[in-house]
Amino acid sequence: MSNTSTSPVRTRIAPSPTGDPHVGTAYIALFNRCFARQHGGEFILRIEDTDQTRSTARSEQDILQALRWLGLDWAEGPDNGGPHGPYRQSQRSDIYRQHIELLMDKGQAFRCFCSAERLDAVRAEQMANKQTAGYDGHCLTLTEADIAAKLAARESHVIRMKVPRDGECVFHDRLRGEIRINWQQIDMQVLMKSDHLPTYHFANVVDDHLMEITHVIRGEEWINSTPKHILLYQHFGWQVPEFCHMPLLRNPDKSKLSKRKNPTSISYYQDMGYLPEALVNYLGMMGWTMPDGREKFSLAEMESAFDIDRVSLGGPVFDVEKLNWLNGKYIRENLDTETFTEAYSQWALANNKMADIVPLIKDRVERFSDVVPLAGFFLSGLLPIQAQDFNHKQLSEEQCKHILQFYVWQLEQMSEWTREGIEQSAQHLAAFMEIKIRETLFPLFVAITGRAVSVSVIDAITILGLDISRARIRQAIEVLGGVSKKEAKVLEKRFRDLQAFAAAAQADE
Questions:
Q1: Is the peptide bond before 86 cis (omega within 30 degrees of 0)?
Q2: What is the pLDDT of residue 4?
Q3: 259, 393, 486, 493: the active-site residue
Q4: Which positions of the chain have pLDDT values less than 50?
Q5: Ranges for the Aminoacyl-tRNA synthetase class I anticodon-binding domain (predicted)?
Q6: Taking the model in full, what pTM does it have?
Q7: Mind listing the domains of the chain with CATH numbers?
């Protein structure tokens, strides 16, 4: 099943504003943009913020800023508008309600009143019987009178999609050819949640159709969801777009790229002083090569030579060492003395950084030559620390490592940060571990500043930002021997206890 339309090519990237701007988002955006440009089409950006509990305006702005920094601009989006807006799903509620009613009228969707407890029990029984876990169709048997009574009683419910139980879904993938998935493997997807907001799957299809997306180029993790999307297209009687599922980025050990093993935030690479054109070039090498085999090429050159059919399905490895080599090549070959000086100055003084640093060091300075020893860590990447740097009278290396692991998990949960929030998390950790706060801060000082005594480490994290700070703490954990899987399980349990302790403490404050 494929798109036979002769409409102008339109592709999209649709990030969720629920965290840091991910290099995987930039990777998929790059290939969508190149495909559209190569065919004389348009690339658009849509914000998928149906998860109102996790979506933040800060995350959205970070994503837009990061993609702009990389030069991956878009023809239509939430910032520049367009004829198919709004481009935020949270502003399209009326559109979704109209379309869910169409499905209900056609009998292709139904109300489900099942409680979370019932659904959990059904899944547990299915798993115990080694069956595919999924909705059992219980509410399909409700009569019109049953439904009317439940609605009159204001019982909470969701709206699910009807899915065939026999046969299989057969569709064509641009890179993978024919794919077959048995319908029994496909759950009766929730389309509209009890809060009347659409799920990703429903909003995704409605928006792609109304925004005239002709080619859906996305990560391979969405392959198993494609039958749900195709079924929705068929229920509405719409043309199915062409699907192209890109291979996922991998760590050097071939595991899925994750922030636990590799920095994944675009902001991290910007803060570390990488050139945007080098990072885009490197992402372009992920599963694709220039026809002449050269490794250094511009975005314009990639667009001109682009052919998505040449994408390799082998999991592309995101190797920071290779990125370092390529970035160095760009610095040496593309920047003369004047442009290097200008680019470095812009990076070092970005966001008026010195205005935040000076108040921390001014009272400690007797000569301007004292500034670099005191504040050089603000303009560094990962620091040259060693295990002996964590020697402490009251804390063992093991305790230092555990404290740092708790700190990094705390920081990972912060989508937005303030000095007060970071300080409060440190106080909660100290109280939970029954250790003086200056002792719990000691390993953090070493990890963040490279020294046991320095300027306020809380202020340092606030100025450096969470991306660099988390990377330095993870590096320190590895310097101290790392955390094994067995050890991680124990620490994760303790961290859950810490979260409960912190929640209780906040409630009492």
A1: yes
A2: 46
A3: 259
A4: 1-4
A5: 340-477
A6: 0.90
A7: 10-76+250-323 (3.40.50.620), 90-246 (3.40.50.620), 355-508 (1.10.10.350)
